[in-house]
Design brief:
mainly alpha
Amino acid sequence: MGTMAAGPASGGVTPEDLMAQAEQMAYKLLTEPYEQRKSELLQIKKSNATLHSLIISKMQEIRQRAQQSGGQQVLSQMASQMGAQVSMNGPGG
């Protein structure tokens, strides 16, 4: 039985926890250079395919919202606001 990088101490991770983690990581990854983002996503996919899929979906949602709301500038603002809340302890460990 494997353990998750984040979640309740009981060892269980709720779908809400996973979605919140995916959203935070999506914002963080969207602010990174392509090669770094690609590398991190590959590591996430190896360790947690479900989380990887959720992150990809969230990244697509964020991009769509950004395009509808004024493009790249809005995306940068959202990511910088979210980035202050995202810790640097990603998956793995």
